[in-house]
Write the structure tokens for this entry.
Amino acid sequence: MSHSPFDTSKPLPVADGDSAEFWKALNEGVFLLQHCEDCGDVQYYQQAMCRICLSENVSRKPSSGKGVIYSYSVVHRAPGPAFKADVPYAVLLVQLDEGPKMISRLVESDLSLVDFDLPVEWVGVEVAEGVTLPCFRFAKS
Ligand SMILES: [Zn+2]
């Protein structure tokens, strides 16, 4: 599928062999991270091997879904027609409690309060039939 500037549908993730289980679990309300059984590294991006030691001995475990805002950017100008109705919104770089950082989006939260180091928790947002994205909201204290 291509995305011309006139295409108002948002790009959706495409599940492949390495990520199919990850996307399926999100639909079921579980946010999986990959744990290397050899070096202990935890990674978010689903790959066939550990990004640190290249071991293929990786397993998926549910994440706590908790982390903090490592960095963020508030988007006021939509990157394309499909995002026009969404602005302003915040893109987050979340530092997960388990270690990895991931890019996501702030939802269900007061945009004016977004800041560095704020605790956040993941929430699944169904963006299309059978497609759930891992987004984040301010953690309930
Ligand atoms: Zn490893």
User: Anything to note?
Assistant: The chain has one helix and eight strands.
